[in-house]
Amino acid sequence: MGSGFVEQALPSWRRAVLKVGSSLLAADEGGLSPRYAAALAAFVERSRANGRDVVIVSSGAVAAGRALATPGQAMGLPARQALAALGQTRLIALWQGFFDAPVAQVLLTHDDLRHRRRYLNARSTLRELLALRAIPVINENDTVAVDELKLGDNDNLAAIVAALVDADILLIATDIGGLYSANPRIAPDAAPIDDVAAVTPELYAIAGGSGSRSGTGGMRTKLEAAEKAAAAGIETILFDGTDATVVGRLADGMLSGTRIRAPRTRLAARKYWLRHAPSAGSITIDPGAARAVRERGASLLPGGVLGATGDFARGDVVEIACEEDGLPVGRGISQYAAVDIRRIARKHTRDIDAVLGYSYGENVIHRDDLVAL
User: Fold this and answer.
1) Feature table: binding site for ATP
2) Which domain holds residue 65?
3) Shared domain check, 292 and 262
4) pLDDT at 112
5) What integer pLDDT is reported at residue 143 of this predicted model?
6) Last residue of a domain, one of 236, 269, 302
7) The pLDDT value given to residue 142
8) Annotated binding residues, as ranges?
9) Are 115 and 52 found together in one domain?
């Protein structure tokens, strides 16, 4: 490992998002290569064997499809979208070839993650895939994306996915050692930066653009991703995905690369947001449910719900108030719209589907989406 980075211990983690760029997957002659992906897949396998979850955010569909393109073909947006459609199957086949466990393809756009209902649906799907011990491989849906198909998109998508699945760390595999004081490809005296307390304008000033023919994101977009992740209390790790020794040591809990810290823990960041996010309405609950929320941090079930005030939608932040004294008990993200909550109030969880004709799960508010006051 000649990158000059000092080896340090990784932060403790149970769930990670691993972002792999197309520069690590593209073959020189076109298409995909397992050259660097094999070591990254071995890291995923070892992590899973130790009881951890890894979600992969993988670029490479356009690079895979490019091998099927006519030589000299113009690469406008429609052509790139067609290549992405052709390359998706090859990209998933590459990852599936490394694992005995099933690989699940999940295609997202930023619009899916901005729309509250689709956001919750995507989160529920990913949580279920992890519960099934599948390996989600996420990519942007380049076949339908228009303005989203742009420089460095999957770096930022990976940060959003990390928050979506409640990851502890975001691992970004690059084709250089990590963050340097200058571009190491053109500045021989560039010094490695092992530890970053916070992303600053000074760091953005030294970040470069794309470093390879196949890649779409340079170090700047990785800093943008790290800043997004830090806001959710998630640390970001930048490392050289082309160095099998560096990748292998990650599985041992050791990093040679850059650690970008978050100002507060993931849980603290989420609780802070829930406490201060605008409320769209309120849910009234009985004293027994109020005690369960206050004393045990329990999820809120429909049996303890008495009613709902306002016209909030599924995914909105709402107040939770006790019917007995009217005092606030907590705040959380509602899994059901106000109109639905009024219909399932005081009902057993097994009756939700029969009453509504559908179900988003047994919880009105899941404990992970709730902060007691």
Assistant:
1) 19, 174-175, 216-222
2) 8-269
3) no
4) 75
5) 63
6) 269
7) 65
8) 19, 59, 142, 154, 174-175, 216-222
9) yes
